[in-house]
Amino acid sequence: MPSTTIATVSMPVVYDPDTNLTVMLGRIREAAELGADLVVLPEQALHGYLTDTLSLDFDNVRYQQRNAETVPNGSRVSALVEAAVEQSLHVVFGLTERDHQYADILYNTVVLAGPDGYIGRYRKVHQPGDEKHVYHPGSAFPVFDTGIGRIGMLICYDKCFPESTRALALQGAEILVMPTAWAYDDADAAADDDIRVDQYTLFGRVRALENQAWMVESNVVAPQGNLNYHGHSRIIDPNGVIRADTGPAEGIAHVTVDIEDTIQRARGIDYIGYHFLKDYVPVPATIGRYGAGTE
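-> structure tokens emitted (295 positions)
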């Protein structure tokens, strides 16, 4: 079976989309030189994440409004899509997307491009803190057929909800891709034993294992706004094992794998032969404290 090289990037991001674009294009070229078939860049890599999630910064809101781009035809978006074509690889990257029709509607979006151009986008569904005041939520978890397998995307806080990745896996996603801007809890200490780093690790490994699928995470690194991002862009296999990790530093992690074979093994052999998706039984919706359904 064919092998696939997956790469993921940890990069600092600034509030200047042209500067970010230059860095992103350089990382795409670097990934291509490593032989990558897929390279993943962080959440809001093009525009920079909000200065905080618990303190609304109206200057930053104005910055997002002025610099947001439509997908796929915005000038910088087009440059990144063209880079995917020129380097003949798949690229996932995050940005602030402006609605085609209504200029006041913004989305926290990731775009998937490939050797043949634009493939699709995902708009963040779960929004923490002040994202609710800036972005409109997405409403679906699409999965895209590509030459390297079926790719499903999520963004940062989505990872805290098991239904997000399960919705992708049930649609046949083999590669779960998660751009993120995941910060330390203690911005000053910036230590690997920080509780937010530990939780990030826990969520990522469990989401890969419970769906027996590949998980690719790409995180911002270094301070931006009031937050300090810890990096640790990772590639996690279908058994929940971290196969590559940038650590708390800028750079690219990569691994060459057989996507189909490793998923087959995970779902038929590795976990004492248990296939979690086959054995999955949907839980009936009930009326509960935090939501209504049918009894």
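The helical segments are 17-33, 58-67, 75-87, 131-134, 162-170, 195-211, 259-270, 276-279.
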